């Protein structure tokens, strides 16, 4: 074995031992190729199986002048379809400009790697997506990257006050602060307190040198007027420097759009490496994304989002009361769903429902056996001690699906408890038998 092979194999086997080795799921267990009920994908509105969207896509595709490839980087080949979609999205989202990226990952990595300048500070929620971490790490804001506790305004305020105290350039406005949040967090289903953050900025940065960047990856299509996201829902468009909407989740396409001002767009075109040094989205991709936006504009997304929220409410109604009798480490809702009014400032329903358990893999395997696909999520994707099965509900799920899921999880927990009880009994019997034998022997 070469030195490289030995080192790579050792790292993988260490992950294996710690039960965190990643593997591609069995393709037969993915919802598109089998009859499994989908509680896993980010296809929140079930657009991927929408006959209306499919018909629209095929019809536009068959009429389009260009469908295959895109010919190169946007900097070399700037296709009509790409420009038209950008213009349309800038208008749809009420933004000065829009810039397409091949993925949400590229957009975050590109933005955060090049927009913060020397002397600037980047602050982010501790649960922010890996793509923001990658971007910030590559940025010029070296040794000026700080996280605050998830969704905690008190923690954020404390951090901002400390930074203001330590860095006069943030007070005199010669340097900038960037704050990265997700409007809906993908692993927790929690909502960023956007309005409160804007208030803090107005209070502490009256010179306007604090900039909010909102990743709407998981909120796109579901929240706000015509699915335009949480920023639009709260009317905060003018308070946000950049918004990211991805096409790969509820929109069942691929790619992303960054909504921002003209100067930043121009700067990204010059400096964002994941935009410059890559082939742009194919024309077919652009058509797919564009057809999904048709579904936002024609009201289909709104109707499906309402169906989805009905299912989420139903799931909570049947699950919550029955969890009371089950030990928390076996099966529990996270704090914000146990105490919706305290834990979640917005009171909104989220299709992402983490089911906290110390045994995510056995629970997921049990559900799979019953024909349901809900994925286990462990460290390093989530913090240590916060293992879970991540349940994603979809507009296309039925009430019966959701009831079967709740029942399946509760039955699993009861079977684990029963097994533990039987083991304890057997151990006790063994100990009693042993003591009895010793007693008998001492009498002989
Ligand atoms: C919050 C968030 N931002 C960005 C991304 C990346 O988006 P994309 O899948 O388009 O690369 C994801 C996807 O995992 C995400 O969850």
Automatic annotation (TrEMBL):
PANTHER family: 8-AMINO-7-OXONONANOATE SYNTHASE, CLASS II AMINOTRANSFERASE/8-AMINO-7-OXONONANOATE SYNTHASE
Protein name: Aminotransferase class I/classII large domain-containing protein
Every Aminotransferase class I/classII large domain range: 36-407
Pfam families: Aminotran_1_2
Protein source organism: Pleurotus ostreatus
Record has Transferase as a keyword: yes
SUPFAM superfamilies in UniProt: PLP-dependent transferases
Cofactors required: pyridoxal 5'-phosphate
Record keyword Oxidoreductase present: no
